[in-house]
Amino acid sequence: MDNEHYSLRQLNLMVRDAIEMHLPDEYWVEAELSECRERGGHCYMELVEKEESTHTPIARASAKCWRQTWQILEPYFERVTSQPLRAGLKVLLKVYAQYHEAYGFSWIVTDIDPTYTIGDMARKRQEIIRQLKEEGVFDLQKELQLPLFCQRIAVISAEGAAGYGDFMRQLEDNPYGLHFDITLFPAIMQGEQVEQSVIAALEEIYVQSQQLTANGQKPFDVVCILRGGGATADLSGFDTLALAEHVANFPLPIITGIGHDRDESILDMVSHIRVKTPTAAADLLIDHLQQVLLRIENAQQRITTAISQKLSTYSNKLTTLQTLIPTLALRILSNSHHRIEMLGSRIPVAIERRLTSQKHRLENIEIKLQSFDPQTLLSRGYSITTHQGKVIRDPRQLKVGDKIETRVEKGKFKAIVQ
After folding, report:
1. CA dist., res. 180 & res. 100, Å (int)
2. Exposed/middle/buried for residue 98 (C-beta within 10 Å: 0-12, 13-18, 19+)
């Protein structure tokens, strides 16, 4: 058995020498940041590699970027990617191995390739967009409409943030004297808690929006998500699937004004309207309400003009009628008088004609009556035989011994039936 032994420092120095001998070069390494913190001007990172299907860590290591290098790499990375180096990002780092007998092993970062991170971020964004479109919610907000009287506004923003202050001042000092009711729902608007905080605010707005106000109206017309006054690079919280789904499915129109000039965030893409700044969001609401007010004023003017035109037309008609009435009355009276005269001249003629017609009719009736007079029949050689006052029309009405009376033109005689 070898009785030779080493102190811990001696052994660690041997490890350091071995690493320096066998890993003398710099290497580009792909990894995900599980931690990233700055202390004393240096940046300390924890690197992790995960199995793609299960996301289970299969490798870990510490990395450090010393102050002199970090002062160059940090602004460079943010300028290219528009966001800070943070946990959750995939990075491509240039490193060399370092083993310190007192502090152990770590990779020392000498360079970073931000285009690798941009590619990974773009891939994640495209995946989220694809999933939202497959769910059929990507354009749901675009189908909503701002209410005509869009005055009750729920605002999600950091309390006391400069952007929120700009928004409020712009609304309050609008040149038209328009009134807006603002309700603030405070939220964290940068950092890792953005997603959770904004979703919580949306859920609270939804709960309140289901309750009617005292006059029977919904409490909110629109939601504004505002961010301003913070670091313009720290916008990763607005590129998450969960937040995008909440915004896309929200029943009220959502306006985003999160204060940046780079490409739209996913939150911007799924919102109803995207503007660059909180001030621009206020201007949009003012312009919208002013347009509604202008439409009302124009409609009022058109109604007033139409009524005035109608009244003028009716007044002219009345004036015309007033001048025509005497003439029309005289004409009507003249026509009526002439008609009466004509009728008066026609009445005697009509009466005489009527009397003549009736006279002829009576004469005809008289002639007809004369033809039916029994005396006329008797004068023609006819006779009328009666028995007990009844006219005999059939010999079978009589029997032997009946006394009958026969009337002729010149008189009458009696006889006995044998």
Report:
1. 63
2. middle
Cβ-contact 190, 157 below 8 angstroms: no
> What pLDDT was estimated at residue 72?
95
Which pLDDT does position 247 carry in this prediction?
Answer: 97
151 and 119 co-located in one domain: no
Q: Any residues with CB less than 8 A from the CB of 73 and at least 6 apart, and which?
A: 65, 109, 111, 112
At which residue do the structure tokens 């937040």 appear? 243
Based on the domain organization, do 243 and 204 belong to the same domain? yes
Which residues partner with 33 through β-bridges? 47
In a domain, 32, yes or no: yes
- Interval 86-99 mean pLDDT: 92
CA angle (10, 11, 12) in 5-degree steps: 90
- Provide the pLDDT for residue 173: 94
Instruction: Assess whether 187 and 253 both reside in one domain.
Output: yes
Does residue 100 sit in the same domain as residue 186? no
CB atoms under 10 Å from CB of 229, counted, come to 18
Which of 106, 134, 162 is the endpoint of a domain?
Answer: 134
The residue range of the domain holding 390 is: 377-416
Tell whether 172 is covered by a domain. yes
pTM: 0.61
Q: Both tokens of residue 301?
A: 């003017």
**Amino acid at site 383:** S
For the chain, counts of helices (H) and of strands (E): 9, 14
Statement to judge: residues 77 and 179 lie in one domain: no
* 162 and 126 part of one domain: no
In the chain, the amino acid numbered 365 is I
DSSP assignment, residue 382? -
Structural domains in the chain (count): 3
User: Which secondary-structure segment (H or E) carries 195?
Assistant: helix 194-209
- Token representation of residue 288: 């919208």
In a domain, 285, yes or no: yes
* Cα 189 to the center of its chain, rounded Å: 29
Q: Count other Cβ atoms within 10 Å, centred on residue 80.
A: 14
Does residue 359 belong to any structural domain of this protein?
no
